[in-house]
Structure formats: C-alpha cells, structure tokens
C-alpha cells in the first residue's frame, strides 16, 4: 500500500525531507506559501551582484551542508579580508586591523565560552547535562544568564563589554541581554571551543553559486513539483493520519505531515487538536530573534568592518562584495524596526557611525521578522528557552512532525546545516513510522 506525506515549506529542511521520503518510495507533496523555494535562504540579483538576503555562510566543519556541497558539485570562497576595523566604545570611534580588534575580543569571548567543554562534550547532545546530577542546576542557571552576566565580575573593560555587545547583537540577531548564554557556549562546542573557529564557521566562507545553487539542485531531484503560493491554514492530525487545509479551501489527506514552518510563523496555522501547552508557549513567546540584515552599497572600494554596541541600529558590518567602482557591505542589527532596509538615507546614517565620508548609493534587504511566513530571522533562544523549548517539538504523539533549523541538534538557526540535519532525520523517522 502506498503512503503519502505532505511537507509544508520548501526551505532546505522541506526540500531534503521530500528528497529523503522520495528515496524511500513514499509519495510526497510539497506546499510552499511563498512564490519561490529556499525559505530563509534566498539568493537574489540586486545592486548588480548576487546577494544572500538570508542564510549566507557555510563551512566544511558543518557536516550536513558539506554533504550537499559535495553532492551538487558546488564550490566555496572566503569572505574578503578586512584592511581596517572600526569599533565604537564609550561613544568614540577607534580603528586598527581586524587582528587587533579580534585580540581585544578574545578575553571576554573566552569567558562567555567557558563551560562549553563541560556542558557540551558532544554538542549534538545539547541537553545531556540535564541528565548529570552534578551539572543539572549549573546548566539551568547558565540558561537564565545572558552573555553579559558572564562578564559581570568587574574584570572586563568598557571596551571589551562594548565589543561583546556588538558581536552578540549580531549573533543573536536580537537583544543580547535577553538571550541565553548557553547558545554561545554551544556554538563554541560546535567549533572546538575556539573563538576563531566560531568566526570562521559563521562568517568565513560562501558558496560560489550562492545558496540558490544548492536549493535549486535539491528541487531538481524531486519527482513531484513544489506547489508555490500555497499557504496552509490548518492541520488536523491523529495517530493514523492527517489532513492539511490550504488557504484556498482545498484539503489534502495524507498519512503524515512534516511542518518546516519556523516558530515565528506557526501562529498562522491552526492545529486540530491544538498543540500541547509546552509547544504553544514557545509559539506565543517566540525566539529572541528581532533583528535584520542589510546590504549597503557605497562608492569606491573600502575593505572595512565595523562594530558598535546598543543602541546603534547596526551592530556589525563588513565589506563583502566589490564591483568595478563600489563596495557592497553587509550589516546586522538587533532590531528590525530601527531600519528601513531599502532607504539609502538609512544606510547613510548607519555608515556615518564609523565613516561619514563614505557615500551610500543604495540599500537592500528583506525584513524576515515582518515576513508573515517566517516571523523571525534565525532561531536564537531567550533566557530559559535553551533547556525548555525546542525539544518539545520532537514528538507530538501523532502523525504531525516538525522539522527545520529551529529544532536542530547542532547548528540551530544561524546556519542552514541545522535545517538539513532536521530535514533528513525527521524524514527518516517518518519512513520508519509508516513502515
């Protein structure tokens, strides 16, 4: 007897889940609310260049993305080296080399990463410390601390704290004082407990053909088409099957559903029966993901990076693309509502924090927080959420399954590696369930 599974969402998690189900001989139907595939990975031609409006960087130490890079014959290249770094501390602009500013960050970052070896001997077993009676309380306590609480003993200068503020405003893509310090410690564990390795894995290397080179390749391997512009309004789920209701009124009956919709957009779907309280609480609270990414084009060639603490609208920026007569700079800020991503005047105000002599030509970006089909950038936990949120979505007790980077064991959110991990693992669980 043939089996049918509906995959909701055509980002990386949804596409690889569909491919995995297809390999097992299961009939798959993929429905996607947007008019394109890729989800929060989106390579688009703007400003005369191929820009990543969402997920950007990859690394060979990320096992799932490297497997896809190998499968589809993609290549990578490094982000440009920065000639001059500018950072703001106590309201004053300082400058030096990238190596110098990194050296100024290392002491505070090492303090923040302290405990990563103890808490995450295997970073893919994120909650193993809860099973250790000698670590459990310490682990939960760390979850309720921010990265700044780790620096509260008076040993660190204002400059070190300001650089920490700038870095983690971008890292959390939200207010770093509200984020769980365990996220930072797990990032360190995924990178051999080393600051330089964290920077390399999250900001170091990009795909020659962009993220599109991968998500288009996966989509071409699917036998069934992906139905675009097809939002889902509801899902009825039982222990033996499910029904997916589309916004058009159409109903799709199936043996199982894989939802790859992120937490920020799960409120657009009505579940029957409703999600359990622990899941619903996460959907209501959402993640600590309130920020945005902007691309700014300036005249001339400038190999620079900038760091600024709150309340600066952009906290981290660096040169990424050079055209014949201009530089395209990428920036990250903790609050999307402080930015008009397509307004050159907004871009000029940002650049003026560091180098007012530069002339901004144009700006672009995509506001993922305001996007109803994402409602967030990448998944970054609030204080208390690392130990009490994402893992509740692993088992609904019915034929409703959740995949996507929000639930990953490894790189949850910030890298597409986590989305690929969950797409494959969730699909395999469904295959076993249906067989």
TrEMBL record:
UniProt keyword Oxidoreductase, yes or no: yes
Domain Amine oxidase, first and last residues per copy: 12-430
Top enzyme class: oxidoreductase
One of the Pfam families matching this protein, by short name: Amino_oxidase
Keywords carried by this UniProt record: Oxidoreductase
EC number(s) reported in the record: 1.4.3.4
Keyword Metal-binding applies: no
Molecular function per GO: monoamine oxidase activity
UniProt similarity note: Belongs to the flavin monoamine oxidase family.
Protein's name according to its UniProt entry: Putative amine oxidase
